[in-house]
Automatic annotation (TrEMBL):
Protein name as it appears in the record: RPP14 protein
One GO term of the biological process aspect: tRNA 5'-leader removal
Annotated InterPro entries: Pop5/Rpp14/Rnp2-like, Rnp2-like_sf
UniProt organism field: Erithacus rubecula
Pfam families, per the entry: RNase_P_Rpp14 (PF01900)
Family: Belongs to the eukaryotic/archaeal RNase P protein component 2 family.
GO terms for cellular component: multimeric ribonuclease P complex; nucleolus
């Protein structure tokens, strides 16, 4: 019989703690080119990120899942998403990249956010807003 002889089984409670399988970090970056040559399109920009990872971290680095969520060819800025375990690898690879198509270049990390429901905060800076 159950507790206190009432014929009821004791209720079993199980505590479950769920962890997200892959926490992400988001980076707002800008590519700076030394001269006014051709600008990379979205596919070329993504390839440049993969190249940076490959040059510093080899094929393992190149396999790191990085998503280009937004890219503006006009300003050469993008929002990148990377799993948290690869965050340092991505940032270091971008920092140390020095050339795009034999031209000097540099990635500037403008803003970083861990996984957040407030991703719109990365999409722009109200101080840079241009009204037509």
């Amino acid at each position: 019989r159950g507790p206190a002889g009432r014929g009821m089984a004791a209720a079993a409670f199980e505590r479950r703690v769920l962890r997200r399988a892959a926490e992400h970090h988001y980076l707002r970056v800008r590519l700076e080119l030394a001269d006014g040559g051709a600008r990379p399109n979205a596919a070329q920009f993504k390839q440049l990120v993969v190249t940076a990872l490959r040059e510093l971290h080899g094929e393992v680095g190149a396999a790191l899942p990085v998503d280009v969520l937004t890219y503006e060819e006009k300003t050469l800025s993008a929002i990148l998403r990377v799993i948290s375990s690869g965050f340092v690898k991505l940032w270091s690879a971008l920092t140390l990249l020095g050339f795009y198509q034999n031209r000097r270049c540099a990635f500037r990390v403008l803003q970083v956010k861990p996984t957040s429901p407030f991703l719109l905060a990365l999409s722009g800076n109200s101080r840079e807003l241009v009204l037509d």
